[in-house]
Specification:
- By secondary structure, the chain is α/β, with parallel strands linked by helices.
- The chain is built from 17 helices and 5 strands.
- The protein has a 5-stranded mixed beta sheet.
Length: 360
């Protein structure tokens, strides 16, 4: 929902820019500013490609109307649109500063501030030149957006042969907007598939634009081109998505949540290991939780062990859930994990629930 909401406001941002540049107004400026700020704050990784698109829209409209607009009017529009971007960046900075402040209050979240995740988010120069990124741009992302990268290759060859220079420039710019976010956030795009949810729109638009241009010249080809696009898309859905969809077994989570709800007072906290980032158990149990995910450092584990109540917001820990995890296997965290586990479970009775052990 975060990705789709950011995409919604990003598209609205580009649409409002188009309206404003064609007919400047106070309402249009406010609309563009608000949608841009919201899109940036919700998810900057989604918004960045559309900010490039917005800039291209402004330049194109001003160029197309260069004989009808005075230099003063053009400079005013450029300054207004630049101001919307400045406000969006300022909003993002303020939101990031606020969220980082909240994270710094919890030792479990200090490793997830914007500064701590800078390399994770923006990647490295080596990643921008890596074969993995090229494979993502030229094969994986086109496969998932249009069914197969071969369709994109065929469309590009067709574009080079059939489109006029202005049409080819428009097609190339759409491909640029598709590819640009990969180089801004290379690590995220290589690791996660869902980041292409936003910028793949430009690849789909490039294909649609090419089909439109060819069909405009030769209308009889429209049906064949659309059938090819639909067929490849259906093929890609079956190959890359449908076959990977598997029914999710949530029996363990429901079992643990039911157990916690029966055995933990509403004001108490559930501590959990091996539940990773999932909030399913505390959500269905309707109880607060302190979930310690795999990857938590030994230093953090020892700080929690020194004063568990501090990390439970001063509440009593009414239940400890221990599911299979990597702490006991990793040499670096084994000792600290055992220290914390001993502190949390001392004096409690154990009971096996599913594949986990509970202490109450």
């Amino acid at each position: 929902m975060i990705e789709s909401t950011a995409l919604f406001f990003s598209l609205w941002f580009v649409a409002s820019i188009t309206d404003y540049v064609n007919a400047p107004s106070a309402y249009g400026f406010a609309e563009t500013t608000i949608t841009g700020a919201l899109a940036a704050c919700i998810k900057i990784t989604t918004f960045v490609g559309f900010s490039f698109a917005g800039a291209l829209v402004v330049l194109y409209i001003l160029y197309a109307n260069r004989n009808n607009n005075s230099l003063k009017r053009q400079l005013f529009i450029i300054a207004a649109m630049a101001l919307t971007i400045v406000i969006a960046i300022a909003s993002l900075y303020a939101w990031t500063h606020f969220s980082d402040g909240l994270k710094m209050k919890n030792i479990l979240a200090t490793g997830y501030t914007s500064e701590a995740l800078k390399t994770w988010n923006f990647g490295t120069l080596a990643q921008r030149k890596s074969p993995d990124l090229r494979m993502t741009i030229f094969r994986r992302a086109p496969n998932e957006a249009l069914g197969t990268w071969l369709f994109v290759l065929a469309l590009t060859v067709l574009a080079l042969r059939k489109l006029s220079r202005p049409q080819l420039l428009a097609y190339g710019l759409l491909l640029f907007l598709f590819a640009a976010p990969f180089f801004v956030f290379p690590n995220l795009h290589v690791i996660h598939h869902y980041y292409q949810y936003a910028n793949s729109i430009f690849l789909v638009l490039a294909a649609a634009y090419l089909i439109f241009c060819i069909a405009h010249k030769r209308p009889k080809l429209l049906t064949a081109l659309l059938l090819c696009a639909i067929s490849f898309d259906a093929y890609g859905y079956v190959k890359f998505f449908y076959q990977s969809i598997k029914p999710q077994n949530r029996e363990l989570q429901v079992l643990l949540a039911s157990y916690a709800r029966r055995n933990v007072n509403p004001d108490d906290v559930v501590a959990g290991f091996g539940l990773d980032w999932s909030s399913e158990v505390p959500y269905y149990a309707e109880r607060r939780a302190l979930l310690i995910s795999n990857g938590t450092s030994d230093a953090v584990l020892l700080k929690i062990a020194a004063d568990p109540g501090k990390f439970a917001d001063g509440k009593h820990i009414g239940l400890v859930i221990v599911c299979p995890n990597s702490f006991s296997e990793a040499a670096g965290t084994k000792t600290a994990y055992n220290t914390l586990l001993d502190r949390l479970t001392r004096g409690r009775t154990s009971e096996v629930v599913g594949s986990c052990v509970t202490y109450k």
